[in-house]
Amino acid sequence: MFKATINDVSLFRDALDTISNFINEGVFTVNKNGLSLVAMDPASVVMVLFDLLSSNFSEFDVSGEQSLTLNIPYLVSILKRASSSDIVSFELIEGDSVLKVILKGDSKRVFTLPMLETRSKPPEAPKKLDEGFKVLIEVESGVLKEGAKDALMVSDSIVFKADEKSFNLLALGDTSQVNLSLARDSPSLLNLDVKSSSRAKYSLEYLDKMMKASKVADTLTVSFADDYPLKLDYKAIDKLRLSFILAPRIDTE
Question: pTM surpassing 0.85?
Fold first, then answer.
């Protein structure tokens, strides 16, 4: 049995909307702490880690720990039907094969979301990834989002560079380039922790989609190292955490 009510579904909806760019079917783990998801996109380029805390709900009741395999884009489409004043409830009765999503406002609307068969075991979050990061940056999410959009004008990849003095994004096209530079004293650069100067290249197609998560948090933490995966962490205190791990592009020439 699972029953939960949330008075403002916007953070949950916006986070899932971003996740749906990469993941179609997701296996959510539900327990007393809230909802969590670990999933890999079909191309195995990006991993998604998501936690929605039970404290984000006005009511949260679950029997033990349960796994819910759901169509994420369809769930997002339902949540987008909720107005800003609607209260949203989720109900799963033991033995049922559907999750009820109830929108309560001036009227009561009930949607049913079928439970899907779990096709494979969800991936595990990498335990030792953080040990390899040489750069940890906290930056305003809007700045990084605009930097990625600028870079898309000239290239399909972007270079992350950092040293003790600055953090830089560089995109090189055939005839032009785009460079975003944030000095250590920039108001938009909230923290710059560099163990060693680092440089890595990543896909802009994936990064641009990840940047849609800026709706859920005003700042994000960026972690990377030389030719090492990129990790982006978005946090809304006492509500949710959304992280992406993006594989690097390695130049072979």
Answer: yes
